[in-house]
Please model this.
Amino acid sequence: MLSVTYFYREPRKTGVSIEGIFGLVKNCLKDEAEISEFYCDAKLSRIQNIIKAGKAANAINHITGDVNFLAIGLRGKKTILTIHDFGFYENPIHSKFVKLVYRLFWFYFPLKYVDIVTVVSEFTKQKLIHYFNFPEDKIRVIHDPVKPLFKVVKKDKLNDRPVILMMGTGKHKNLDNLIEAVKGADLHVDIIGWPAEDELARLKEYNILYTVYNDLSDEDVYKRYIACDILFMASFYEGFGMPIIEAQSMGRPVITGNIGAMKEVGEGSAILVDPYSVSEIKDAISLLISDKKLYDDMVGKGYENAAKYNYKKIAAQYLEVYKELDVKNK
Model:
C-alpha cells in the first residue's frame, strides 16, 4: 500500500477549503493508500515548521497548498506540491519586499525541491509556467472536487422575490458591481462573508434587500444554495471557483466571469459576463429571471458540467500521481 503524508497549514475553524478537498481524497483512497497528516504549528516559526516537516517525511509527501515553503524541508524526498492560485502573488497592494519574499520562499525555492506540481486549473498552470518557467511535463491539472453534500434539489419556480447568492467577500469578489446591477430591482441578495462598510452603506442607500451570513458550516451553505435562485460569481480573480460547481451540482444557474479560471470552469454551462460591466451583470440577471427556457437550459448544462468534478474521479487522478511518483527512481 502507498504511504503518503499530507502537509497542511495550521488548523483553523474557518477557510478550510483545502482541508476539505484533501479530506475527501483521503477517504476515497483509504483502500489504496495509507495517508497520514501533518499540520503546521502556528506557535512555531516557519523555519521551525520546515524542520519539523522534514522529520515527518514519508515515502510520498504531498503539500496541499498555502505552505509551499515546507518543500525546503522535504528536499531529496518524493514530493508533490498543489498550487491553488497566484492571487496573493499578483495582488498589487503588497510591497516589493513582501512580493520578493513570497516569490522566493513560496515558489522559487520550493519548486526546486518538488517532483510534481498539481494545479487546480489550466489557468493556474499557465501562470506557473509564465512566472517561474516550471517544466510543463512536471505539472498535472487536477480540478477541485465538489463535496457529495451538494446534490440536486430541484426548484419548481423562482422565489416571488428572486434571490441572488454571492459566495465570499473582499473587493476582488465584485460585490460593488453586483450592487449597482441590482439597484432598483425587486431582488434579494444573500451574501456569505463579511462585506466592507462602504458596500453595506450602499446596499442600505439603494434600499436593496439583503442578508449577510458568515461562519457557516457546509450544511448551512447547502441551505443557502437551496434558498437561492441564481449564484453570482463574477469576480475579478479566481484560481478556480468551486461555488460555480457546487451551485450547478444543486441545480442553480450561475453568472460568472468571462476571464481566467472562471471562464475555464463555467464556459458552456454558465452565463459569462465581463465582471467590470454593470450592464452585462444586470442583463444576465434579468434574462435568467425572465426566460424560463434559458434558466432551465443553464440548469441542465450545469448538471453536466458538475459531473466532471465528482470527488471520486478527482481522487482517482491524485492516486495516479502518487503511483507515478512511487515508481520513480525505484
Remarks:
- The longest strand covers residues 2-8.
- The domain at 2-144+311-327 is CATH 3.40.50.2000 (Rossmann fold).
- Residues 96-112 form the longest helix (17 residues).
- The CA atoms of residues 21 and 288 lie 31 Å apart.
